[in-house]
Write a structure and sequence with these properties.
Largest sheet: 5 strands, mixed
Helix content: 40-55%
Distance between the termini: 26 Å
Number of domains: 2
Strand content: 5-15%
Structural class: alpha/beta
CATH topology of the largest domain: Nucleotidyltransferase, domain 5
Low-confidence stretches: none
CATH class of the largest domain: Alpha Beta
Bound molecules: 5'-O-[(R)-(carboxyoxy)(hydroxy)phosphoryl]adenosine, zinc ion
Number of helices: 10
């Protein structure tokens, strides 16, 4: 049972148009003690009642990971309770085990966040395999970078979602990359959106001199923002769901989950349910608060590792990148 799920958002990055690693580490330092205090208060627990401490070991920004790892290690050591190291992407997948209505095993999970895009086959809570992933940008990055090109603040994904609701998803057509197997690519899409905007919709291939003036470009974006957002979102969703459909056909698995920040996208949530009913899938989508980065997903993963006695040594290091 989830007793608290406290999130300290970092607004500081907005004015820079993306996460600034050093500012993220400092904000982690400022927030970590108040967040833990608030979690204890909300859950009406004392430190002495804790059975173990789970923390994100990887992947992520090394400075932010260091703050969490050092804090978790110190707390576990002082309370003489086990320490549990959690893989951030595994935790996104296991967010699907938080609600009452859980997927059966094996299930496939489309994990879409700011840094990752993966199709994961999950045979039991701790037995997972990445069977497809992006070869370049992540889906969340495609949303955020498109938003930046449109002059929208960071993170742009939620804003594209909002404007897309008012737009025509078929107003503009961006081509779908042809990547073999279950892997994804978003960098070509990003480049074609850049040229499309530079040329105010007149072309989405590179031109040595832009076909329009900066004023005309801005006017085009302002007048067509909803349609541009809807069309970009439609393409990102079709790239994701076509591969997910392929993965389901290849594995014969029809228990399908969504995870990661981009699974908060309303267009993606509607589309996966629609495709799911035609493909005979059982679709599971975590509540919004468990889609974007959150403490509960680390806790549920910690819970399963605790049951399996998968504890970490106290000299474990965080890792910016890690395979699993
Ligand atoms: O999983 P997450 O919270 O953090 C990472 O581990 O990266 O994902 C953040 C990503 C960002 O790229 C953000 O723009 C995207 O999730 N995102 C969305 C929406 N809400 C968050 N993208 C599209 N539509 C949304 N509604
Ligand atoms: Zn995440």
């Amino acid at each position: 049972m989830i007793k608290s799920n406290i999130i300290a958002s970092q607004q500081i990055h907005q004015k820079y148009g993306g996460v600034v690693p050093e500012l993220a580490s400092r904000a982690h330092l400022q927030h970590i003690v108040p967040v833990v205090d608030e979690a204890l208060q909300q859950s009406r627990l004392t430190l002495r009642e804790l059975d173990a401490i789970a923390f994100t070991q990887s992947p992520g920004l090394i400075g932010a990971l260091l703050v969490g790892a050092q804090f978790a290690k110190s707390l576990a050591m002082s309370l003489t309770i086990p320490l549990i190291a959690v893989h951030h992407m595994q935790a996104h997948v296991l967010a699907n085990l938080i609600p009452e209505h859980k997927p059966g095993f094996p299930f496939l999970c489309l994990t879409v966040s700011g840094g990752h895009t993966q199709i994961v086959r999950c045979d039991s809570p701790l037995d997972m395999k990445v069977i497809g992933q992006t070869i370049d940008d992540a889906a969340g990055e495609a949303f955020d970078k498109t938003a930046k090109m449109l002059g929208l603040p960071y993170p742009g994904g939620p804003l594209i979602d909002k404007y897309a609701k008012e737009g025509n998803p078929h107003a503009y057509r961006f081509t779908e990359p042809q990547i073999p197997g279950l892997d994804f690519s978003f960098s070509g899409l990003k480049t074609s959106i850049l040229y499309f905007l530079q040329n105010a919709g007149k072309s989405n291939v590179y031109k040595e001199t832009f076909l329009v003036s900066p004023e005309e470009r801005q006017a085009f974006i302002s007048a067509n923002l909803n349609d541009i957002c809807a069309s970009v979102q439609e393409r990102i969703i079709s790239i994701l769901l076509n591969k997910l459909r392929k993965a389901s056909h290849e594995t014969g698995i029809r228990e399908i989950c969504l995870a990661g920040g981009v699974s908060a996208n309303s267009g993606l949530r509607d589309a996966i349910k629609r495709i799911g009913s035609s493909e005979g899938w059982k679709v599971y989508i975590p509540a919004f608060e468990y889609c974007t980065d959150n403490a509960a997903m680390i806790a549920i993963t910690g819970h399963h590792k605790f049951l399996a006695s998968q504890f970490a040594p106290l000299d474990i290091s965080p890792a910016a990148r890690a395979s699993w």
